[in-house]
Automatic annotation (TrEMBL):
Residues 1-107 form the Thioredoxin domain. GO terms for biological process: cell redox homeostasis. The gene is trxA. The record marks 32-33 as: Contributes to redox potential value. This is Thioredoxin. Keywords: Disulfide bond, Electron transport, Redox-active center, Transport. The record marks 25 as: Deprotonates C-terminal active site Cys. The lineage of its organism: Bacteria, Bacillati, Bacillota, Clostridia, Eubacteriales. It comes from the Bacteria. InterPro entries: Thioredoxin (IPR005746), Thioredoxin-like_sf (IPR036249), Thioredoxin_CS (IPR017937), Thioredoxin_domain (IPR013766). Disulfide bonds join 31-34. One of its GO terms (molecular function) is protein-disulfide reductase activity. It comes from Yeguia hominis. GO terms for cellular component: cytosol.
Length: 107
């Protein structure tokens, strides 16, 4: 599945009004740890089971979304379930930890 780039314009449609579990990666191009995490996020997106959508938010371009989620450090991963935050974590995470985050968020 392709990674969806979230903006203020498409956020509600792509991340809130969906039955999918939504993994959001808040990142920036200048952030070394974000660049380290990016291939892991891409791998998860390629292998994501039905019902999981993987998205990215560039915090430099989308200040409103970053503020809405209280992003203070990046990379920050947020999992939305039914439009609400079900889980989140900050910093580079191994693939297994991110998959576990998604499993826990499924409830």
């Amino acid at each position: 599945m392709e990674i969806v780039t979230l903006t203020a314009d498409n956020f509600d449609e792509e991340a809130v009004h969906t039955t999918d579990l939504v993994l959001i990666d808040f990142w920036a191009s200048w952030c070394g740890p974000c660049r380290m995490l990016s291939p892991v996020i891409e791998e998860i997106a390629q292998q994501a089971p039905a019902g999981v959508k993987v998205c990215k938010v560039n915090v430099d371009d989308e200040h409103e979304l970053a503020a809405k989620f209280g992003v203070m450090s990046i990379p920050m991963l947020v999992v939305l379930k039914n439009g609400a935050v079900a889980a989140s974590t900050v910093g580079v995470q191994p693939k297994a930890a991110i998959l576990e985050l998604l499993e826990r968020a499924k409830g």
